[in-house]
Amino acid sequence: MRAGLLLAALLLSGASVAEDGAVRRCIGPDGRKVFTDRRCEDAVVGGAADAVPAGAAPVRAGDCADSPEDVRNRLARAWRNDNPIELSGLILWDGHGAQAARAELQALATQLREPLLAAELEPFDAESAELTVRAGTQTTWTRTWRLQRVHGCWWLMP
User: Fold this and answer.
1) Within-domain flag for 83
2) CB atoms within 10 A of CB 52
3) Which of 54, 80, 138, 148 shows a CA-CA span of 20 to 30 A to 42?
4) How far apart are CA 31 and CA 29, in angstroms?
């Protein structure tokens, strides 16, 4: 009986981790992007770099967008190259589960097939902005992303 309760407790505790299923994008101490299902603070070295501790220096220039204009330029390059992977690297995936991230990536891949008509930037303050993208041929569509500065880098917020 006691072993059964212990097993049930272990299964339930494991289920709560699995249910979260969030994909987090962390920046390792070497400036590389690390995707994990763990909190950035808990990322392990076995195949992924440790997350940047609080108060650490920002990542090296060139590894992430250093301004809203840089995000816009990288987005335009990804669009020109029809490269959803490059575009996905501009998105801060914190809190997105695997299924939600997959759906977002599939939608982006479809949208990238349309020509980019405009990418208009509206800065708000030193830490946030908005980027409005218009694309299409016969029918145009518009999408607005919030941009946020996190850990010294600028990200598209899905």
Assistant:
1) yes
2) 22
3) 148
4) 5
Note down pLDDT in tens along the chain; length 158 residues.
443 433 333 333 443 333 455 677 777 666 667 777 677 766 544 333 333 334 444 444 457 899 999 999 999 999 999 888 899 999 998 888 889 888 988 988 888 889 999 999 998 888 999 999 999 988 888 999 999 999 889 999 98
- CA pair distance 98, 55, nearest whole angstrom: 29
First vs last C-alpha separation in the chain: 47
**Gap between the Cα atoms of 140 and 136, Å rounded:** 4
3-state secondary structure 18-51: HHHCEEEEEECCCCCEEEECCCHHHCCCCCCCCC
Please give the residue range of the domain that contains residue 109: 58-157
Domain holding 133: CATH number?
A: 3.10.450.50
Specify the number of domains making up the chain. 1
- Cα of 153 vs its chain's centroid, Å: 11
Q: For residue 45, give both structure tokens.
A: 């070295």
Q: Which two tokens stand for residue 131?
A: 């980027």
Pairing between β-strand 33-36 and β-strand 96-97 as defined by DSSP bridges: unpaired
